[in-house]
Amino acid sequence: MTTTIILISLIALVASGVLSTVIGNFLYKRKLAKRKSEVEERSQLILKEAEIAAENIKKDKIIEAKEKILKMKSEFEEEANKKKNIIISNEQKIKQREQTLSKEIETLKRKETEIDEIKQDLLQQNEIIKKRREELEKFNQQKVKILEDISKLTAEEAREQLIASLRDEAQSKASSYIKDIVEQAKLTATKEAKKIVIDTIQRTATEHAIENCVSIFNIESDDVKGKIIGREGRNIRALEAATGVEIIVDDTPEAIIISGFDPVRREIARLSLHRLVQDGRIHPARIEEIVAKTTKNIEDEIIETGERTVIDLGIHGLHPELVKMVGRMRFRSSYGQNLLQHSREVANLCSIMATELGLNAKQAKRAGLLHDIGKVWPEELEKPHAIVGMELAQKYKEHPAICNAIGAHHDEIEMTSIISPIVQACDAISGARPGARREVMEQYIKRLKELEELGLAFDGVEKCYAIQAGRELRVLVDAENVSDEKANQLSFDISQKIERDMQYPGQIKVTVIREKRAVAYAK
Fold this sequence. Notes:
By secondary structure, the protein is mainly alpha-helical. The chain has helices at residues 2-151, 155-203, 223-229, 234-243, 263-279, 284-313, 320-328, 339-357, 361-370, 385-395, 400-407, 419-432, 439-456, 484-501; strands spanning 214-218, 246-248, 255-259, 333-334, 337-338, 461-467, 472-477, 509-514. β6 (461-467) and β7 (472-477) form a beta hairpin. α6 (284-313) packs across α7. The longest helix is centred in the first third of the chain and has 150 residues, at 2-151. It starts with a helix and ends in a 9-residue tail after the last strand.
């Protein structure tokens, strides 16, 4: 019983569950159908709305297209009207041109007919003129015959006489005219020349070029003076003997005076002192070594000075030997005036004056620089320095005008170039400038050179230096060829010859130095 009850209850439970599921499924299907119908209704509404929107859009687009078409049509019609108007205006212009051309053609035809008529008239007039010319020629011939009979001269003879008389008259008038021009030019030439010279001098600023016979060697302290003098003065004596100058060491603070008339010797002494002081080793052997090196180096300095001068003046293509001679001018003076400064000044003056006169300024500057080149020629010649300089310029292929200017600047030869008087005038301007030259200085240097040459003329003399402004002649002799006794005799002979051959103030001390050296080499 219990089992059946349990089974019945189980069956009832299962039946209730199935019934609930069936009822649930039925209700779910009804909901789905309802939702489906709602969705269909919504989709129908959406489709209707989409169709309505599409119709509206279609209508709008159609309206826009119609508006664009109408706008384009109006624009096209406007452009067509414009082109039509242009074509109409062009046609009118063409018609007007055709009318004007037709008028011009008519006028040309008229002119052609008129020209033909004028040609015919001219031909008739030419025939008339020819006839009249023939009549005139016959009449002239008759007149000429009558005149020839009267004057007893032919027409050619009369023509020659007339030409001769006209020529004489023209020559007389021309000569008088030329004479007036020359006289007027003479009156104005002096004024113009003075004006050019004054302008040239004013445009050239130059220092006074007086050369002194002393050089100042500056030192850092007076302690160096003791080293230069050396023990018992051996260093200073060795330096004076090697360079040929007088070295004055006095109370002047931080300065040593180098005295000598030859600027090359003074420069060698100054450079040698500079090297010795820098090195610090000062003794006779070192002094002789440094002086020998400086003497060799001075040639390089001469070349460098010449090149620098040529570059400063803007002169190109000068021969190396001439450049070297220009450098030598730095160590040469003329009447106390430094030759290089004088030549540079003359070159600048010549350039300015040539420019004022409209001549070749470069050529004039070159001639001005080289005009005293003969003064530095190492060989002593009896010719004037102007002729020597001209021969040197010809040797090194300088322009003939420059050679003539060099040779003629002291009137040794005739001037054949327009540059020659310019160089002569500028040389005079440079030399005549106040303070430029001292005549006494030139005579003094000449006397000292003659004194040195007199001493060198004796046998056995190696070097000869005039020092102390010519009051002492220091003679260095060869120890092997000159003995002590001969050295005494040599000093006496030189002093006697000085007394006989030279004129000098006061007295001259002759010092003969004989130094014996023994040299051997350890190998």
